Amino acid sequence: MSVLWGVSFDGTPLSGVVVEFLKTAKRLAARGHRVHLDLGYDIKADKGAFFRPYRDEAGLLPDWVVLDRVDGVETVRGYDREFVERVLAEVVQREAGAALRPELDRIAGELADRITATWERLGVTMVMVENGTLPENPAYTEGLYRAIDRYGARHRLGRFVFWRDHDLMWQSEPGIAKYGRFPYRATPAPRNSPYIHYFALHEEAKARTLEWVPGLRNLDVLPNTFPIDTAKIDARNAGFRRDHGIPEDVPLLARITRIIPQKRVDRDLHLLVLLPDAWLFVAGDVEEAPAEYTRLTELAGRLGVRDRVVFGGWLTPYDTATPGRYSVRDLLAHASVVSFLTSYDYESYGNPVSEAIASGTPYVTSGYELYNAVYGTAGFQAPVLDIRARDLPDAAFAREVAELITDEGKRAEVVRANQELGRARFGTQVVDDLVDRLYPPPMGAGTRLSVVLPVYNEAANLRSVLRTLYDQRGLDRESYEVVLVDNNSTDDTVALAREFAAAHPDLPVHVIHEPEQGVSCARRAGMDFAAVRSRNRPDTDPAQRFYLVSADADCRVDVHWLSELLEAMETTKAAIGVCDYYYNADHFTGRPRLWDAIQRTLRCRAVTFSLFGGFPDGKGFAVERDAYERAGGIEVFYQLQDGKFVNHLSDDWDFGIKVASGGDAITYAPRSRVEINPRRVDHAIDEVITGRAYGSGGTIVMRDIRPSAPAVSADLTEAEALQAWEFSIKDFTPKNTILPVLLTPALLEDDAVIGFFGADLAARLGERIAEIRDEMRVVDFTPIHAYKTPSYRLYLEFADELFACLRKHVGEDIGHPPPLPSCFADVPKERFAEFVHYYCEDRESGEAHNYFGNGGVF
């Protein structure tokens, strides 16, 4: 069994830090991880629990969590609460304490020994560190780093440590410099480690961390996350108000906090004075800071609101069926408003604010230092107390709060807008996707192929596409899986995918999310996800090849698609296998001119792919995993469009170029067939005809070709058919007759290739390719450009001869080359090749790109 060891540096059984651990760990527990949690009593000195045995803390946590501690930590000589407090005061705050450093180093070493021994005893496979960078205890932090390095190396683990920092030095009581001042020389800084993935809660914290530790890698932003679901009053929590003595019909302010001075609960009491009908419920441990609790109760008495304040103690962070035990969600179901009038230097994300947003409850907040970084600039709506201008709520602020309580229309609009933003920024799917990506579920030993399916709003097609993948013949279902990559769909795509997976448990279907928009990004995410998981298959022969397969969410695959593709890859041992593609003729009934243009293109493709192997197309290809990784995976290129960077669409071709230029072979699998969705023609026919199917001016980007109107059913005119064919063949010929031999000149010595070109043309092509490769050897290292330009040049120089080859081997109806661009009309014959060079190199205007069809191939 997989074992997750969690350690919180918070030293308390319930806090925002512990709650976030539980949310993330729950995802892993559902996959079969046994979860152990060390609450950090033996780490943090100021919570008064150092070495204190656990008592009833387990009752506050889900039953799938085992409370645990490091074995024998109390036996480390000299390690106690007094030592930790002394290190914090002398070493961290004053950057002095030289006499303590040898002792600190020794203790760190002994702590590392005990941490490692505990992990060995349990068989730990993953570690989650919560708040470990906050220098409450540098000896323990340093010991933890040493244990991670030692344990990871011993067991050959990857990034088995999930290290999340909620609070950092510049966020935690910066006014008194509790943790020293920048650059924090006495604090154990995050370090580049092959075993650790770091997470900051927002971009500002990430930027400050990198300012402190330039060059730190594997640091990403992961916000605190929350289930976006309106909290409801139901049979389980209907008695919440009654059990706490709160009238059913009064407005209720909810405060979810530790009852300590920094949280400024006194502001809520002053607000209550200005809201004479409202009550306040404070959910927090009244025993943590008894003096503060006493101060607050006395203040409530002096203000005359004591009878409207309930100090309700801890609430569980999860729903519970225990009689008399309530959760935070129960409180929120009854609350009118959540209050978070905390101090300016509040150190973290503001969990109560997000809890309120997620539950559909309006909130009010102080303008604490990080409020805008996390919520304000994102557009979340709430009354904000400007505590830089006034320390306590005034009448104007109270009127804003009262309006939010009484104006149902405004309240509903605030809830709607906040939940919409919250779902995108910190819905639980955010962390679920990340955990699935970094710590993916295991892959079966018999799995040989992983089919990657990028999707964006494909609810209309998805069921039929998944059905064709399910109905594959010629191989067992346990030999392949589907990785569906959701690229920010706003329709029912993901729900339908999960529904299909639940109904077909014999075919593994994994759903992951790629937030960066673009099919290139989604394809890369899916293939990287599958490649990592494939290396953890149990009892697998190291010599067995594993394949990553690309599919398209709007195309259907034939029943033998995968088995034929696998057979071709296993037989040839090629790095890439390319499928055959076709359209259903029935869809083009009554459109013979359009159908003829399509068929001529596909006939040319069948001939040249049989000779050269072709290039991968996202609609269907396979790549052997090791070759994928040798080539650096799918690389996403960017272009400028209207002043913004956009993904280049040709990631599949770019990838094929990288693989072929690296010396790996590509094979054509003609019996592995994919039916292309006719919408690619129907809803872009005008652009296909004019060669603008995917862009213009040298920019190739994805456009949405899902139908928004009835499909065009009329045939092309003769002029349109000629234009469509010319763009198609101009797009096709440089890519499929020139580019393969440009990448692999040795092909020109193959008998079949010589038979296609003829011995004389093959020899002259080889000589010219050698000249151009030498001429351009240091011009451009971007594959799609480094090879597109010379392919265009060679086409223009040899066009008549190339078309003669196509007429001979494909059919006379291929015809002759389309007319040259008009700019060549006045170019002397003897300077033709020279001006071809200038024309094809002119990337500023994109003229050559537009001439060659710009994606006009069918």
Written description of the protein model:
- The protein is α/β, with parallel strands linked by helices and 858 residues long.
- It has 4 domains: 3-221, 3-Layer(aba) Sandwich (Rossmann fold); 240-427, Rossmann fold (3-Layer(aba) Sandwich); 430-676, Spore Coat Polysaccharide Biosynthesis Protein SpsA, Chain A, CATH 3.90.550.10; 720-851, no CATH class.
- Helix content is 42%, strand content 13%.
- The protein has 29 helices and 23 strands.
- The model has no long low-confidence stretch (mean pLDDT 89).
Q: How many beta-strand segments?
A: 23
Distance between the termini: 51 Å
| Amount of helix | 40-55%
Determine Rg (CA atoms, Å).
Answer: 33 Å
Structural class category: alpha/beta
Mean pLDDT across the residues is 89
Sheet with the most strands, sense and barrel status: 8 strands, mixed
Can you tell me the CATH class of the largest domain? Alpha Beta
| Residue windows where pLDDT falls under 50 for at least 5 positions | none
Named at the architecture level, the CATH assignment of the largest domain is Alpha-Beta Complex
Strands of the widest sheet, in order across it, are 16-15-14-17-20-19-23-18
Total number of distinct structural domains: 4
Classify the beta-strand content into a percent band.
5-15%
CATH topology of the largest domain: Spore Coat Polysaccharide Biosynthesis Protein SpsA, Chain A
Pfam families: Glycos_transf_1, Glycos_transf_2
Keywords: Glycosyltransferase, Transferase
Protein name: Glycosyltransferase
EC number: 2.4.-.-
